[in-house]
Give the backbone structure.
Amino acid sequence: VSDSPTPTMFDHDVPDDVASVAPPLETVETGPRRSAAEEARTLVAGGNAGTLATQSKDGSPWASLVAYGTLDDGSPVLFVSRLAEHARNLEREPRTSLVVAASPAGDDVLASGRVTLAGVAVRPEGDLARIAQERYIAAVPTAKAYASFRDFSLWVLRVERVRWVGGYGRMASASGPDYAAASPDPVGPNGAYAIQHLNADHADALLTMAQALAGHPDATAAQCHAIDRYGLDLFITTPRGFGLGRLPFAEPVGDPNGLRGATVELARRARAAA
Amino acid sequence: VSDSPTPTMFDHDVPDDVASVAPPLETVETGPRRSAAEEARTLVAGGNAGTLATQSKDGSPWASLVAYGTLDDGSPVLFVSRLAEHARNLEREPRTSLVVAASPAGDDVLASGRVTLAGVAVRPEGDLARIAQERYIAAVPTAKAYASFRDFSLWVLRVERVRWVGGYGRMASASGPDYAAASPDPVGPNGAYAIQHLNADHADALLTMAQALAGHPDATAAQCHAIDRYGLDLFITTPRGFGLGRLPFAEPVGDPNGLRGATVELARRARAAA
């Protein structure tokens, strides 16, 4: 868990005339956010496919699509055919990395989350090989049909370095041990359904939250654009321009069914403070 | 355009007891299929994001998400910040590759098309830089907001080698010149809407096609699973087991609106032959 404030784009080399975000007018408690390791675990748990980078025979980088299963510590399990270049590449050079991306919410894929897991691919043996095979087939059921093909082999990606990008201006790194120790967010990578529901049916409550809890008492509209186990993020319209708000839940959400109670409590707290 | 028959999985190392596909009972004309270069151009034209493989400072392969625009010859245009590892990697080692994948039709991403474009990234200059910038912004409109940021730079991926995988057992390679010379299929990467419509509303016509034109006179059901400018592909149910059918259009489809006429002609031809 990281308690850094909402990251900004301050580190881009931006000309002076680019508009900036309207700041909050009051000091507000923004609470914790998912750490890079939690973001990564959440993305990996939410998918079964990614793109692998391996090194081709001539030394050039080779990108290729793979499906994956996941071990308990978040290590991806690959099951690849020697007919595919990536499998031959791994046999020669086991250093590799895997990108897993969230399904983009709109047309702009760069606004969505993705993670690179970099490390070393190893061939699992004994019980680990059996578990890895089970996990791969659980994630990719059609693999049952070719699990016995002798040109396929299992690999476990031992993650050593994690680079997460959450969208524009949101990015952070994590170590392999941090990644292994983190847990996936039960809310999922982007909570798309909850966001849609809040914006469609609870616009008034979101506006009250923006005014009473997010430091924008002059807000005229608010829209939820992200949600996670620790809270929700708002786009806020004010006479001073466009603002951002972060609203922490009273308690982290422990399972998907806890999301409703956490947002209801937030709305109640906003009304009481308004 | 390649006129090879439907590729099979014969080159996997398959145990003897794996079931095989029911062959056609009559010799049938299967016509041309999209070449690997056409498949690649179609996938690239149908998207604006992919995963790039670059080489990290320590020599290990680095996978990362990028958006892209496209030049007329299909060369992807990248616009990346030096704050991102992939940009610094390209400056050190311009050999790179990009995966572009179709949106998976179902849960099994390995059944969907994807392509790896491998080559060298170059910094465009003069008019080419202007055009590349325009193409990137056309594909990624939000980039207008950071087009002036000085930490971003344009790259054009000069494609030297193409590896296309169309799903299970469908794969082929193409050269850079083949890729540049091919044109995207106006039907798009997977013709999802047309497939849905044919299966929902024209199951009888598909069955007649399977019986009369695809060499399976004993077919009891047929389902379209792929469509392209040259024809459509069927999954066929027969008392002998599961079969595959390929039905070539009388003429390649020249624009998206031509698809309806081509399938109507095919249905008419099937009825006449039944």
